[in-house]
């Protein structure tokens, strides 16, 4: 704890609790008021808008000018670089595709930490899905930085890795789940902000543990999606309709998210990517990336994940075959019922 420079641990805890009280009475704690948001893609655009709606003073940045224009048109301030975001924010949230983008935004020539000088933001939250080691490395870098202006509750800048689950619909509805790694007191202090974008936050332990939880979750999700797809394909080959098999799964031991919420077989459920030619949703490319992170992390600790490794091969192949921008549930059609149609 000392390394992070909290003056008094319990002081921040008290402050965090008072933040929660303030939040419940719809008053935004002043320490969280000015939020810089970087990465206005499928997820980040909704998350940033939910913060605006909750009353935070949000400033945004993305390398994509079109994404920024949509915010500028709505009167939300935009900045041309992460450095400029850093200069006006108390808290900076990043929601970027992968580790290399996050490292670029933090350490790049116009990055959040440019020059290693004193920083205005006291809190950084990375919600991108990255490998735990990247989160830990950035956390170490931040712990060596200083604040431009010391605050009553923190003497040094803090960082949380806070990846999400729930996908684009949950991002839009403000119902994400955040898996958070970092100092627990920082997590408590950040909770009101996270709950403006989500419905649940889970503290996972020290720096990088949020990222570790996320890649484990997504590895399990990929494996279960492939398992369910294979079982539906076998059922169809044995003469059982996927809708019938779904009814059975969903009241039997095979029930899972891939069968009851995100069914991969076209025509079985409405409103899911399989019902719209696997468009929208969570792309196969991102799933391949997350499996890659999981396998690299497993190798890093000398652990073998044979099913995860098999799932990675399947998703790599699927991307090579042109389905990288299709939702990851397209594995059903790609692997068992022919290639995706455009
Ligand atoms: P996305 O590709 O739609 O958005 C990423 C945004 O980051 C883009 O607007 C891009 O222009 C911007 N960007 C890239 N490099 C940048 C840079 N150097 N500086 C500023 N902006 C930059 O991705 P997404 O679907 O919003 O996902 C974001 C993260 O959330 C990923 O790590 C993903 O794995 C994770 N995630 C996605 C989903 C989902 O369903 N899409 C669900 C959970 C988690």
Q: Please, could you describe this protein's structure?
A:
With 342 residues, this protein is of the alpha/beta class. The protein folds into two domains: 2-206, 3-Layer(aba) Sandwich (Rossmann fold); 213-336, N-(1-d-carboxylethyl)-l-norvaline Dehydrogenase, domain 2 (Orthogonal Bundle), CATH 1.10.1040.10. It is built from 14 helices and eight strands. It has helices spanning 9-24, 44-54, 65-73, 82-88, 99-107, 132-143, 167-173, 184-194, 209-237, 242-250, 257-260, 284-300, 306-323, 331-336, and strands at 34-38, 57-61, 91-94, 123-126, 158-161, 164-165, 176-181, 198-205. Strands 2-1-3-4-5 form a five-stranded parallel β-sheet, sandwiched between helices. The protein has a three-stranded mixed β-sheet with strand order 6-7-8. It is elongated. It starts with 8 loop residues before the first helix and ends in a 6-residue tail after the last helix. Nicotinamide-adenine-dinucleotide binds next to helix 5, strand 6 and helix 7.
Q: Could you give a quick summary of the protein structure above?
A:
The protein has 342 residues and is of the alpha/beta class. The chain is 48% helix and 11% strand.
């Amino acid at each position: 704890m000392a390394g992070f420079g909290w003056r008094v641990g319990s002081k921040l805890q008290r402050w965090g609790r008072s933040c929660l009280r303030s939040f419940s009475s719809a008053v935004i704690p002043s320490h969280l008021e000015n939020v810089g948001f970087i990465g206005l893609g499928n997820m980040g655009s909704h998350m940033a808008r939910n913060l605006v709606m909750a009353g935070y003073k949000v400033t945004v940045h993305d390398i994509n000018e079109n994404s920024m224009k949509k915010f500028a048109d709505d009167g939300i301030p935009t900045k041309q670089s992460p450095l400029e975001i850093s200069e006006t924010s108390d808290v900076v949230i990043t929601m970027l595709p992968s580790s290399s983008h996050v490292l670029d935004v933090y350490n790049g020539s116009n990055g959040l930490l440019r020059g290693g000088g004193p920083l205005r933001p006291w809190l950084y939250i990375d919600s991108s899905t990255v490998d735990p080691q990247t989160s830990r490395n950035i956390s170490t870098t931040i712990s060596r930085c200083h604040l431009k202006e010391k605050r009553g509750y923190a003497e040094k800048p803090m960082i949380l890795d806070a990846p999400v689950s729930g996908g684009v619909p949950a991002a839009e509805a403000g119902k994400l789940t955040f898996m958070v790694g970092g100092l627990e007191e920082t997590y408590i202090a950040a909770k009101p902000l996270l709950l403006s974008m989500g419905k649940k936050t889970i503290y996972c332990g020290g720096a990088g543990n949020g990222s570790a939880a996320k890649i484990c979750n997504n590895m399990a999700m990929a494996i279960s999606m492939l398992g369910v797809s294979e079982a539906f394909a076998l059922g169809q080959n044995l003469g059982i309709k996927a809708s019938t098999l779904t009814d059975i799964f969903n009241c039997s031991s095979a029930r899972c998210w891939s069968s009851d919420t995100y069914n991969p077989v076209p025509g079985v459920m409405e409103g899911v990517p399989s019902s719209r030619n696997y468009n929208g949703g969570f792309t196969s490319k991102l799933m391949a990336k997350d499996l890659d992170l999981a396998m690299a992390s497993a190798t890093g600790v000398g652990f073998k994940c044979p099913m995860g490794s098999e799932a990675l091969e399947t998703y790599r192949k699927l991307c090579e075959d042109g389905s990288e921008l299709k939702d990851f549930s397209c594995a059903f059609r790609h692997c068992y019922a022919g290639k995706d149609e455009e």
